[in-house]
Each structure stands twice: as C-alpha cells, then as structure tokens.
Amino acid sequence: MLPVLGRLTERDRHLCRLLDDHRVLTSSQVADVCFTGERRARMRLAELYALDVLDRFRPRRGGSPVPFHWVLGPLGAALIAAEHGVEVADLAWRRRLVYDLAASQRLAHLVGTNGLFCALARSARAREGCRLEQWWSERRCAAEWGEVVRPDGYGVWTDHATSLPFLIEYDNGTERLERLARKLDGYARLAAAAGHPNWVLFSFPSPRREAEARRVLRHPVVPVATTARAGRGAPDGPVWLPARSTGTARVRLVELSLAGA
Fold first, then answer.
1. Which of 24, 25, 102, 217 is exposed most, by the fewest CB atoms within 10 A?
2. Could you give the CA distance from residue 238 to residue 253 in angstroms, rounded to a whole number?
3. Rounded CA gap, 26 and 18, in Å?
4. Cα–Cα distance between 90 and 78 in angstroms, integer?
5. What is the per-residue burial (b if ≥16 Cβ within 10 Å, else e) of 36-50?
6. 78 — phi, psi (to 5°)?
C-alpha cells in the first residue's frame, strides 16, 4: 500500500471517501464531482483501477451501452480504514461488492439518487456562490432517522446567502401512490422531533408519474415539491413544483426557501 499512497492526490482520496459513503458512481458522476471533464476523469479512473484503488463493473442491460460503475477497490478500502483507524473488515466494503451491486435490483435507484446529488455538485462547481454543503447517503439517513423515516438522501444547497436543507425521495415508478403518501406521515414525525420541517423533494421518472403522484402528496405539515427527470434541466434550476401550488410555474431549488417550509 505504501508505494501507492505516494501516487494518490487529495482528489483521489476525496473520491475514495465518496465511494465509501455512497458505494457506487458512474464515470460521468465522478467527472461531475471531481474533474473538469469526463475524458480526464476516465484517464485517472483507469489509473486508479490499475493500482487496485478502485474497482469497476458494467451492469448487464440489453441494447444501449452502459458506462463503467466505480466502487472502492482493495487499496481504496485499506486507505479509508486507515483514515478511520479501523480494520477493513469494519467497513461496509467487501471484496464481492462489485458482483453484489451488479446483481442488485436497487442499483438503478442508488445510481439515480447519487446522480441527482452529483448534478448539484456539478452546478456548484460551475456557479460562483453555490455549494452543495451536505450530501448524506441513504445509509447515513437510515442510521440517523431510520426508526422514523428513511429518505433516499439528505442535502443542503446554498446559493449565495440562502441555504435550503432538503430530503430526497427518488422514485422509479415502482411504488404504489398510497405508499408514497404514507411516507409523509413519517416526515411529519421527523419534523416534530426536529422542531421544524424540511422540504421533501420527489423526483419522478416522467411527467405522467409526477402528475399522478401530486394528487396524493399534499400534506398539512410537510412541504413537498416534485419534478420529472425526463426533459428537465439541472436539479438546482427551475424544475420544482411545490405540491401546494395551484399554478404550473416551476421554481429553482433555492427559491423553495421563499415558499416557506
């Protein structure tokens, strides 16, 4: 491990920490968070793969080509364990992680959720005064609030002087609408425990799914906003429609703070 450590940059270490927390990122997502372009990202990822810092796989998907998906490799896991002062066995990482994730039915959901946050990170790097202050994984959310509610992620988006904490529900259209509505009761309990509500953002795969879901997502306590990923722009842009809104005008992410929580 020692010869490899001397070849790692702080950006490499940051990437290892992200993969320890969020488990898997595609090549384009890594580029969004850590690099100025996807070509440079692919070149460095290949080097880290050759050093056993990272591992990779391509999920089986008929038809269109699938990008590489990246996870921690043996030396990356050893690096993270050393930073935390624990053994590799104490991490959530395991040598079969590549195979387990490749076969997981939740892979698309995990990658999609991570992609939303990576897109925010890309916007923050491109726009002066904007930052993704917090990005919590589903696992971290479960450890913090799992007895009450289990969001797919938690973040804090800052645009100049305004910050917006939010919780993410990344929907792939597989859950019944009644189940989506029941989740809001859990978020209401979380708001009561915290002393204040946070925005719950539902990201849907299509406008039709969003329109159907909006009928059941109004709540007297929990502020909800929705978007449809198909054909819309970056998640910090004017893509969000508050559930309590009677109009059709969408607002930027930071503008939800003006709508009141």
1. 102
2. 7
3. 12
4. 11
5. eebeebbebbeebee
6. -65, -40
**β-bridge partners, 69:** 26, 57
pLDDT along the chain (261 residues), means of 10: 85 97 97 94 97 92 81 94 90 85 92 98 95 97 95 97 97 95 96 93 97 95 95 91 92 89 54
Cβ burial of 128 (10 Å; 0-12, 13-18, 19+) is exposed
Residue type, 68: F
Instruction: Find tokens 């925010």 and name the residue.
Output: 120
Supply angle C-alpha 17, 128, 161, rounded to 5: 95
- The arrangement of strands across the sheet holding 25-26 comes to 25-26, 69-72, 54-57
Name residue 211's amino acid. Answer: A
- Give DSSP secondary structure letters for 27-90: HHHHHHHH-S-HHHHHHHHHHHHHTTSEEEE----SSS----EEEE-HHHHHHHHHHHTS-GGG
The sign one gets for the Cα dihedral 95, 97, 98, 100 is positive
Q: Closest Cα partner for 101 from 13, 26, 11, 16?
A: 26
Q: Do 154 and 168 contact (CB within 8 A), yes or no?
A: yes
Alpha-carbon torsion 29, 180, 227, 126, what sign?
negative
**Residue 105 dihedral angles phi and psi, to the nearest 5°:** -75, -15
Q: What is the 3-state secondary structure (H, E, C) of 115-136?
A: HHHHHHHHHHHHCCCEEEEEEE
Question: Under a CB-based contact definition with an 8 Å cutoff, are residues 109 and 24 in contact?
Answer: no
Q: For the beta carbon of residue 65, count every other beta carbon within 10 angstroms.
A: 6
